[in-house]
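Dear colleagues,

For the upcoming journal club I promised to circulate an example of a predicted protein-ligand complex. I picked one with fe (ii) ion because it came up in last month's discussion. The inputs are reproduced below in full, followed by the predicted structure.
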Amino acid sequence: MSRDAILELGGWLLGFLTALLDPQGIWACTAAVEATVHRHLDDQLYYLAGRDPGLHAIILSIREEELAHLRYAEAQLPAPGPLLLLLRAMIAVATDCLIWLSTWGDSVRMARALKAAKLP
Ligand SMILES: [Fe+2]
């Protein structure tokens, strides 16, 4: 099974399992994935600033769209209980793992390098 097929299956399984929960579970899943992707896009924007204005503009527009998704999902979760917060944290970790797999760790290495570069 290819890496892309594993990632596709993982995404499908995540969506399917949270769909078995109530709508709050679906919104918690959506918010977790969107927040994780948003953080990943922020790293990319920081890296691209001053390096590739065209790609920076494209990623910025994608981030704006993803931010709208995140805000909408969080609006559906006005007072999440501990189980939803736990579910959201678990899904965020799973999403980070899928991003790591999709880049073979480049995303983590880039985030660490950017964090180190921000230090005085
Ligand atoms: Fe989205």
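Two points we might discuss: Residues 11 and 110 are 23 Å apart (CA to CA). The chain is about 85% helix and 0% strand.

See you all on Thursday,
B. R.
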